[in-house]
Amino acid sequence: VLSDELPESNCFKTFEAIDNAPEEKTRGITIHLCTVGYSTTCRHYAHTDCPGHADYIKNMIIGTSRMDAAILVVAATDGVMPQTKQHIALTKQIGVEQLIVFINKADVVDQDMLELAELEVRELLELFGYRNTPVVAGSALLALSGDQGEYGVKAIHRLLKALDEVIVQPERDDQSPFMLMVDHTYSIRGRGTVGTGVVYRGVVKKHTEIEVLGFGQRLKSNIADLEIFKKPVPFAKAGDSVGVLLRGIQYRKLRRGMTICPKKTVPMTNHFHVTLYCLTAKEGGLGEPILSTHFGHAFIHVFSSAVRLDHDQEFIMPGETVDVSVTVSKPIAILTGTRLVYRSLNGHIIGYGLVKKALKPVVLVDGRLKKAIVPPLKQEEEVAMEETQS
C-alpha cells in the first residue's frame, strides 16, 4: 500500500524476499527475523518481522528486545492461540509498553466470529496490563491485491493511522557513550565485516575508534562506514537500525550478541547481580519454585546463553521478586538496568529481571557452569571498569 502511495520513500518487498529461508518458503511461516523500513507522511519505521510459531519463540524474544512498540497479528479464523499468551507476556517482560492489534483474515469470517476474536484478544491484553489497545480488523491478502473495501487498503490506512497517532516515540539517550549490540553479521568482499543492530544509546560517527566486546573477546576496530537501510549516513543515533562496517575484524570473530562501544565505557564480565521476578502460571510462567542453584537460559537484548542462577534463599516461589546472581560461561558486556528474560532448559519461561550491577568475574573450573566458584551474593563485589580491560 505504502509503495503505491508513497513510492519515493517506500520500496515494495514480496513475502518471498522477507521470509527467504528454504524452510520458511516450504512451511509458509516466519522463522528468522527480518527488518524492513517504511515511511508514512509522519514517521519512518524500522519493522522487525518476528516468528509467531511456538517452535521459534527464541527468535521472537530476540526480535522484541529491540522494539519500541509491537503489532500483534491474530488470525480471525483461529483467534487467540496458546503461543499468543506467551508472546504478549514476553513483549511485556522485554519492556515493550505500546501495542496495536491487527486481526487478519477478517474477510473470511462472519461478524460474530470477528467480535469474538477481538474480545478474546482484549481480555488477554488486559491480563498483562495493556489497556485501551487499538484493534484494527482487515485482510492482508485483500490489501495486497489492492482491494479498496473496509478490510483491504482502508484497513491498512487505519493501522498506519494508529501507528502514527497512538504510538509515542520514546525518549532516546543521545548523551551517553555509543553502544550497539550486534544482531546480524555479514562480510563485504574487499571492504570488511559488517555488524548490524539497533543503537542502544548515544551517537556514533564514521571513523570512530571502538572496541567489540563479548564471548571473552575484546577486539579493537575503527568504524569505516555506516548505513541505515542500505543508505550511507554520516552518523547514527539511539534508536536507529544501522549497519556498521568494521575495519580490521575478521568475519568469523564477529558474533551475534557482541557489543560495539568506545573503549572503557561498558564493563565486561561473566557474572552479574539481577533482580528477578518469578512468573506465576497464570502469567505464562512455569509456575514452579526455583532452587538455590538453578540452570537455564538467559536472553539479554539479542544475546542468549546457558546460565547458572544462584540466590541466598532455599527456593524462589512463583510471584516472588528476589535478588540473584547470574553466571554465563563467557564474559559479555553488561550495563546496569539491562532487561533479562530467564527460561528453563526445556524452553519454559520462568521469569524476567533487571541487571543491578556487573560483578567481579567468577572462575569456572574446567570451563563448566556447574563447577563455577560462586560466593554468597552478600559478599559479591562490583567489577571496576579497569578490571574489565585486561
**Uncertain spans:** none
Tell me the radius of gyration.
Answer: 22 Å
Strand segment tally: 21
Looking at the overall shape, the CATH architecture of the largest domain is: 3-Layer(aba) Sandwich
- How many structural domains can be distinguished in the coordinates? 3
Mean pLDDT: 86
Q: Please estimate the helix content.
A: 10-25%
CATH topology of the largest domain, what is it called? Rossmann fold
Q: Tell me the structural class.
A: alpha+beta
The CATH homologous superfamily of the largest domain corresponds to: P-loop containing nucleotide triphosphate hydrolases
Estimate the strand proportion: 35-45%
Terminal CA distance: 53 Å
Task: Provide an overview of this structure.
- One of its GO terms (cellular component) is mitochondrion.
- One of its GO terms (biological process) is mitochondrial translational elongation.
- Residues 1-171 form the Tr-type G domain.
- This is protein-synthesizing GTPase.
- Belongs to the TRAFAC class translation factor GTPase superfamily. Classic translation factor GTPase family. EF-Tu/EF-1A subfamily.
- Helix 4 runs parallel beside helix 5.
- It is flat, with a radius of gyration of 22 Å.
- The chain is built from 8 helices and 21 strands.
- The model has no long low-confidence stretch (mean pLDDT 86).
- 18% of the residues lie in helices and 38% in strands.
- The strands form 5 sheets. A 6-stranded antiparallel beta barrel has the order 6-8-14-11-10-15.
- The longest helix has 17 residues, at 111-127.
- It has 3 domains: 2-166, Rossmann fold (3-Layer(aba) Sandwich); 179-261, Translation factors (Elongation Factor Tu (Ef-tu), domain 3, Beta Barrel); 268-388, Translation factors (Elongation Factor Tu (Ef-tu), domain 3), CATH 2.40.30.
- With 390 residues, it is an alpha+beta fold.
